[in-house]
Amino acid sequence: MARGDAPQDSYHLVGISFFILGLGTLLPWNFFITAIPYFQGRLAGANSTAGTLSTNHTGPTDTFNFNNWVTLLSQLPLLLFTLLNSFLYQCIPETVRILGSLLGILLLFALTAALVKVDMNPGPFFSITMASVWFINSFCAVLQGSLFGQLGTMPSTYSTLFLSGQGLAGIFAALAMLMSMASGVDAQTSALGYFVTPCVGILMSVVCYLSLPHLEFARYYLAKKPSRSPVHELETKAELLQSDEKNGIPNSPQAATLTLDLDPEKEPELEPELDEPQKPEKPSVFIVFQKIWLTALCLVLVFTVTLSVFPAITAMVTSSTSPGKWSQFFNPICCFLLFNIMDWLGRSLTSYFLWPDEDSRLLPLLVCLRFLFVPLFMLCHVPERARLPILFPQDAYFITFMLLFAVSNGYLVSLTMCLAPRQVLPHEREVAGALMTFFLALGLSCGASLSFLFKALL
């Protein structure tokens, strides 16, 4: 992709910068859901400021449905701003979008950290927290879309680094939670330290972004940015989601196909009758949807299942053992840390094989089988229930379900994003990428909405 006269990335500073920026884009969501026990503890008492970061043996009550609301209000902005990209990208300069979003996230996370020390009634605390969740994730949606647009001008290696940073955000949040809990300080100080951590991460992201114009390698690629439509930036996002798992490999066959398709067209410039095959520059959205509808539906269903129980139901599961260190660390380790590690592993599996392929009807079957995880998790050891019995009380059941749940989520998400471009012609990949990005956001929102129903059925 780079020409011979392209500068070198000295000390890999640009790569490190995009890695940290990727980490920063998903830190807010992961830090909020990993701290669900803290928020539930704050909402359980009339004037408690010492919400703990860990669940106790019986688990804190979720009278405000915090798990459900934090999931829904985190995913709706992604769907909304996916639809509003045209307006935003035309009216707001890129620097304002990226830097403004980072500073907005930093400010709101600083507010969340400050509230640890503020004595508040549950009602106002819940309202302020939900408003913060909405605005933080709105900023994150704008930030991700803008950064994906920038990455479209960079070599594919930097796309992989950015997505690697995103993939590690959940693991980073879970480890930060465990370190805060194991620090031995009081609950309030532990929570404060936990929420200050993403503030430092976002501040580092701001520094990294501001440093890019001063790095020759970044200037070389970002300066030759072509005029890109919002749809093109969404297509870039979809391609980058594949390149994370394939380490840039999926882009190579696509680029080769485009080159092979375009090179012969240089000859027929003098022959008007051969100009007609060049017409499909504006592919029909309906025709592209007809080709990828099944893959897009599979993507929606994968995220619908995942977000309907994670973290709304899974965060409520507690250890069935007697109170102690294991019961204290059970949920952070077996729910959040385990999910993020196995999800990352599942996404990485597509680097080695893609099965089933795009023509197989086995993919929809595998996706539908994941609906079994909904009753399985609902029948685990969740103390606060009024209707359903506990059929899987042992910790080993929950751990086994979580392993399969997380690996299948990562693998099937990665697989569907890799298969979609294979089902369309090269000139249709732009529209296919935009559609897959929209359906990704739709699946997240559907799952978050369904979590209310499943919570009520417990």
TrEMBL record:
PANTHER family: EQUILIBRATIVE NUCLEOSIDE TRANSPORTER, EQUILIBRATIVE NUCLEOSIDE TRANSPORTER 2. Belongs to the SLC29A/ENT transporter (TC 2.A.57) family. InterPro entries: ENT1/ENT2, Eqnu_transpt, MFS_trans_sf. Bidirectional uniporter involved in the facilitative transport of nucleosides and nucleobases, and contributes to maintaining their cellular homeostasis. Functions as a Na(+)-independent, passive transporter. Involved in the transport of nucleosides such as inosine, adenosine, uridine, thymidine, cytidine and guanosine. Also able to transport purine nucleobases (hypoxanthine, adenine, guanine) and pyrimidine nucleobases (thymine, uracil). Involved in nucleoside transport at basolateral membrane of kidney cells, allowing liver absorption of nucleoside metabolites. The chain crosses the membrane at residues 12-39, 69-89, 96-116, 128-149, 161-185, 191-212, 292-317, 329-350, 362-384, 396-419, 431-454. It holds the Pfam family Nucleoside_tran. The lineage of its organism: Eukaryota, Metazoa, Chordata, Craniata, Vertebrata. It catalyses: thymidine(in) = thymidine(out); guanosine(in) = guanosine(out); uracil(in) = uracil(out); adenine(out) = adenine(in). This is Equilibrative nucleoside transporter 2. It comes from Sciurus vulgaris (Eurasian red squirrel). It is a multi-pass membrane protein. GO terms for molecular function: adenine transmembrane transporter activity; cytidine transmembrane transporter activity; guanine transmembrane transporter activity; neurotransmitter transmembrane transporter activity; purine nucleoside transmembrane transporter activity; uracil transmembrane transporter activity; uridine transmembrane transporter activity. The gene is SLC29A2. GO terms for cellular component: apical plasma membrane; basolateral plasma membrane. It is found in: Apical cell membrane; Basolateral cell membrane. GO terms for biological process: adenosine transport; hypoxanthine transport; inosine transport; neurotransmitter uptake; thymine transport. It comes from the Eukaryota.
